[in-house]
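Hello Y.,

Per our agreement to keep a running log of every chain we model this quarter, I'm adding this entry. I've kept the format consistent with earlier entries: sequence first, then predicted structure.
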Amino acid sequence: MKNKKILSPHEKYLLGVKKTKIAVRLWQAGLLIGFLGLWELTTRIGWVDPFFTSSPIRIAVTFAELMADDFIYHIGVTLLECIIGFTISMSVGCLIAVLLWMSGFARRVAEPYLVVLNALPKIALGPLLIIWVGSGAKAIVLMAVLICIVVTIISVLEGLCSTAPDKLLLLRSMGAGRLQLLRYAVLPSAVPTFLSVLKINVGLAWVGTIMGEYLVSGAGLGYLIVYGGQVFKTDLVMTATVTLCALAGAMYGAVALAEKLYTRRKKKRRAKPKIHKPHDPDNGIKKSDYLIETDNGKN
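Predicted structure for the entry above:
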């Protein structure tokens, strides 16, 4: 009989993590396949009327028909609006959070207004957005920005303020100013919070974009959903909805991949051994200079 390889505790832990990850993926795929199969089965045997819920097969057929038409255009419109709103809200929100962190007085003044704006239903501002910027892509992007930016400011500001006081105290004792504290202590410690806000805003940006397209749009997935609901085309509504889910999942996956790459790079930096230069006992004085001075002293 072959001798079994004895695994170390660390190897057993890694093997357990790998098995758990595989099991999670299998369960996720199994649940999705089972749900789609049950959905299709209930519509085939007449338990559920496909007029109200559609079915996976009908969605696939509708998707193929739309792809032969102008579905790509509608996907592109919604995706572009979402990315623009997401980018603006993250950039402006992070900038405002940094400015509020640098001024404690401004932070205390703005705090109640941020809380109120966060609790405000942004859909109530829809008619005002149309009046302010007109009916078109600007109103849709602005709706996405309004939904994301307040969450970005509050979350990033909390991450900036949660920096370890000991680090700040150490840097202050070395004469560091506000900008140096921000660069060397505050921003690095807030990176995990920033990545979490990215994940949150992926979903919020899609919500804002679709809400904007519900209010005013002539193209996009939100427009197709509204149109399909008005003419009772459930297959069109479900196809656009499933496409939205796929796009949101892909966008979230891109952010999760960026976080994974950052974490892996950070671990490599920590694991990389630091090479310290040996101390120079001569304090930078060349040996030849030392010999010249000695000779001169003898003479």
